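U., I forgot to send this yesterday:
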Amino acid sequence: MEVLNTSGRRKTAVARIYMQAGNGNIVINNKPYDQYFTTLVNQFKVVQPLQVTDNVGKLDIKINVDGGGITGQAEAVRLAISKSLCDMNTENRTLLKPLGLLKRDDRMVERKKPGQKKARKRFQFSKR
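Result:
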């Protein structure tokens, strides 16, 4: 099996992954994934597509992730792994699609408006 190269995005985070057959090493920015993502929720998000398709311990994945926050990066990695698993075997699509793992979450931060404190919050109104 050759090296599969895909990318995933969430908010402003971008994850580029390189997947090949191996013994289950997942390295994110030159660190093991459980050291990079310290919370169990984000660790589960990274491994979720592999668990659903029963590929835990069968693939080596090297990931470069940039931008955004920790949760956005974890979800970008999850999307990239899911897309790569579909490229590897088209039957994985029927397992991943009902769980929503192949859909890019396109919600972004709303911009701040002029004359307001934040995107929707206003400055305090004073009658006198």
